[in-house]
# Entry
Amino acid sequence: MQSKAKNIDDYLKELPEDRKIAISKLREVINKNIPEGFQECMNYGMIGYVIPHSIYPAGYHCTPELPLPFANIASQKNFIAFYHMGLYGNPELFEWFKTEYEKQFSKKLDAGKSCSRFKKVEHIPYELIGELMQKISVEDYIKFYELTYKNNTKTK
# Structure
C-alpha cells in the first residue's frame, strides 16, 4: 500500500489513529537517533530516510534521480513495516537485531530482506530501533552501498 501523499503530514492524516500514534512514535525515535546527514522525506509512498543528493550526487543506482534510500516506515494493510537497508546487507547486524527483538518480546521477528513487520503496535521495539539507527553512519552506509553495488554489477 503506497500512499500518494506528497508530504509526511498528509501521510499521517491518512492513517487510523492507532497507526498514526505508532508511526509518529517511530519517527520520533528514528529522528532522535539517526546520524547526521540522513534526511527524512517521502519516498516510495512511505516515510523515508535517505542520503540526499547534496551528499551522494549519484543517487540510487536503480533510479538515480532519487536519493540513496536507507530506511523507511509505513503503515501497510496488516502491519507496520520498518525497512532498513543495513539489516538487509549486513547479516551480523540482522542477527543482532533479531536476537535482541526476540529477547524483548519472546517471539520470532517477522522479517524478510530489509523489512520487519509488526502486526501489533505493542510489538514495535522502539528503543531497539533507536539503537539500530545509531549503528551506521552516512559514510559507512555509502561505503557499504558502493562495495555491494559494484560487486553485484561485476557479476551481472
Notes: The helical segments are 8-14, 17-33, 85-89, 91-105, 126-133, 138-155. The chain has a mean pLDDT of 93.
